[in-house]
Amino acid sequence: MSTSLLLLRAKSLVLIFAYAPAGLGHLRVTDALYHGLPEDVSPILLGAQDSSITLIHRIMSIHVVTRKIMGWFQDGIAEEIYTFLYRQFLRNHTKLLYQQTKTILDQRLVVPHTVLFVATHFALAHQFAEIKEKLEKEMHMKIILAVQVTDDSPQAIWYVPGADTTFVPSEHTKRQLLAYGRWAHLPQIKIDVIPYPISTYLDEDITQSQMEDRLAQLSPGSEARIHISVPVSGAAVGLSFSTELIDRLYSHSHRFFFHVIAQQISYTQKFLSEMSTRKYVDPLSSLHARDVVDAYEKLYRTTIVGLEVTKPSEQSFKALCNCEKRGSVILLFTQPVGRQENDNLNFLRRHFLIPHISEQRTLWLHAKNNVSLSEHLQKQSGKWRGISLPGDAKEAADFIWWAHRQGLFASMATCKVEPRADDSEYHELKSNGVQQFWEKIEEFLLR
Q1: How far apart are CA 91 and CA 97, in angstroms?
Q2: How far apart are alpha carbons 338 and 284 in whole angstroms?
């Protein structure tokens, strides 16, 4: 990362990161942006204090009925009504955020001229947009609100009137959000498309010997240990699925070794206890969400990981890393939960980074019937960075074992993320989204 971001390094600027404890995704994006800053910039991390955000996120993620209800609220007329009501609620409940922000600014030894507020959750973004003008008048300083959308999902709630700039991962999401703003007669906002901001650690180059290690893991003819990362979501979704998949995969081959990363909360206590009894599992956990994010990145810095079993959440965008990068594991996606995870898969599908739906079904059918991989699919797999798993844990494990024996993962391991000649949105496929984020912010500060 360049250290020439002079305005971000100015003592007269205060940088505040705001995230919400609704899963780990918002914190991961915040962490990625933080590590892209010059070393002499010291931002302030401000987490939402409303514990109901976490509870609602978990309820909506883990229960079949509530997932369907949330899905209903994420589309059509229901989404429009929900967005209007929730936006009004957020903008009428800003007292705590106002007091926190004012306290932070009052305690500065050097009176800031500019405050940059970076929000990675829409709730805090809406609330800060509501108090921004009041703070500017009272504190006699310039205040800028930048919003980073944390999925490639054009949900209307991410349209934040009053935001100075909003960053989205695709032209599709930009078009949809702007169309919503016009339809709802909301003040126009500035939206920029930059590649999704993945961790700079994950985008580091690996050595030739480390690349050979990864290829050996994914080679069906090798005896090398296969390292599989299994990050558990903040809502602790799919624990029984993960347990069954891990045990069944190990029964297929003792080459498989699992790194389970999870937060120590009441929902994961039993799961982590069970994982600690298995010699083929390395459980990495902490009481604090920030430490869990750090543990995940430490795993990738110290171990060459071959496969990752993950939800198609913000983790999907590791698909932007080319094969020679630390984070360029083969992504094995569990079934999507919520509209945003389906939207993320659609992003990957639009750019041919995962199989088309018909190809995916063919792969599942071949695995179920133990049919050899066709020459066409073998050739196609050289373009893929990820693949979806069946919803049943037993079938998912059997599919992974079949794909490994067929050499599917070995073929995918050499994928280069390159745009097609007819892809007018190729700029979405870069892995330097963090760098582009701060360069755009620097440009904004210069105006």
Answers
A1: 11
A2: 27
Instruction: Give me the residue spans of the domains in the chain.
Output: 13-198+431-446, 208-412
Please give the distance of CA 443 from its chain centroid, rounded to a whole number: 25
> Strands, DSSP E only, in 69-130?
114-119
Query: Which portions of the chain are predicted below pLDDT 70?
Result: 1-3, 21-23, 48-76, 234-236, 421
Q: 3-class SS at 146?
A: strand
CATH code of the domain made up of 13-198+431-446: 3.40.50
C-alpha to C-alpha distance for 156 and 87, rounded to whole angstroms = 10
Please report where in the chains the tokens 């703070």 appear, as a residue.
135
Report the pLDDT value the prediction gives residue 160, as an integer from 0 to 100. Answer: 98
Q: Is the pTM of this model over 0.85?
A: yes
- What does the alpha-carbon distance between residue 57 and residue 67 come to, in Å, rounded to a whole number? 10
Distance from chain centroid for Cα 265: 21
Is 208-412 in the same CATH topology as 13-198+431-446?
Answer: yes
pLDDT at 153: 94
Contacts of 13 (CB under 8 A, 6+ apart): 7, 112, 113, 114, 115, 116, 445
> CA 23: distance to chain centroid?
10
CATH number of 208-412: 3.40.50
- With contact defined as beta carbons under 8 Å apart, do 175 and 294 qualify? no
> Which candidate, 346, 340, 321, 358, places its Cα nearest to that of 433?
321
